[in-house]
């Protein structure tokens, strides 16, 4: 159980305007919104005043983490102020490279943590804006881009030992002619989800059993249980869950970084009889070699990780080392859509399924677009792939996710799904004085 359940986010809104109107950024915490002024000039002379969409994005963190995250977002967002918006939106690959290779801020990483996530907020806000101006949901906007344009979005620096631009292009071209079929399939069927709702630590056995039964009734083909508190408790909870859901429904497990290497292997082996589909974050998320050892030690149970994966270079190494068998990208952990596109291409190169992390604030809304695009243009399949679903805080979003029979319904509204309702922004704003 998370002892600090103050879910919140650093929030960025990019406004367009003629000279004299502003670009604004501000921070939001659910259960608290933080205000951070970045107010300068925008430029969009072609569109009428007042009818311009805004680009919205956020970085999911909690509590005081937002103060630091917001300062970083403001510092990165400054770079956009006053620029002609079309030129920026027409070259988001160029923007990504410019922001990530900014030497003054790069010193703070490179390419990890607060600064990388801040770049992600700015990049994602621009993608939201681009999708709204195109009148399309982000997944569809990406899915209709030429393969060459998609390759241009990715910075292949440090990746070419396993993935070159030419290899990425040929992978994308493989699926190009049949993209329309998968776009239609998404509109018809949506994308498979799994639910973490039944599995939080701290629930009574009765509540666990009830929520497992409800998940099955709702059409989910996979659930997830948090583990790692006490092995006897975990064995009992897994037995209850398996008994309730039967053998057809998959049960994933998530240790949230609790274990040492040997402990992880021993613990997971004690859960093996309940047939877990994966063990997630068994140990420190940076410990590549430990993950590889755990993966060897618990096979055929697969190791899943990625929600704390700092960047595409770490991701590459995990894949090279056989340290993960399920890739859990996160919409706000890395530097935005572009870096996640690199990670989708890398995962496909290693034939590893992508099952995104979600939950928190707005992560379901954001990451569904990446999985749907992955299906249409990169992996070409939903086999063995599921997007995490957690059933809280959706009511604060302009276009909340919709689930139908255990599937995410493909969103049709223009944008990246990252815009919060004005009333929620106002109500939960954190001023720092509270
Ligand atoms: Mg997790």
Write the layout of secondary structure elements.
Elements: E1 7-14, E2 22-23, E3 40-41, E4 55-62, H1 65-77, H2 85-89, H3 92-100, H4 103-106, H5 113-134, H6 138-143, H7 147-152, H8 165-174, H9 179-189, E5 191-199, H10 205-217, E6 222-226, H11 231-245, E7 250-254, H12 261-271, E8 276-280, H13 288-298, E9 302-305, H14 312-320, E10 326-327, H15 336-349, H16 363-378, E11 387-389, E12 403-404, E13 407-408, H17 422-427
Helix pairs in contact: 1-5, 3-5, 5-15, 9-16, 10-11, 12-13, 14-15
The chain binds magnesium ion.
GO biological process, one term: amino acid catabolic process
Cofactor: Mg(2+)
Protein name: Fuconate dehydratase
CATH architecture of the largest domain: Alpha-Beta Barrel
Spans with pLDDT under 50 lasting ≥5 residues?
19-49
Rg of Cα set: 21 Å
Distance between the termini: 25 Å
Mean pLDDT score, rounded? 91
Question: Proportion of β residues?
Answer: 5-15%
Name the CATH superfamily classification of the largest domain.
Enolase-like C-terminal domain
Structural class: alpha/beta
The small molecules bound here are: magnesium ion
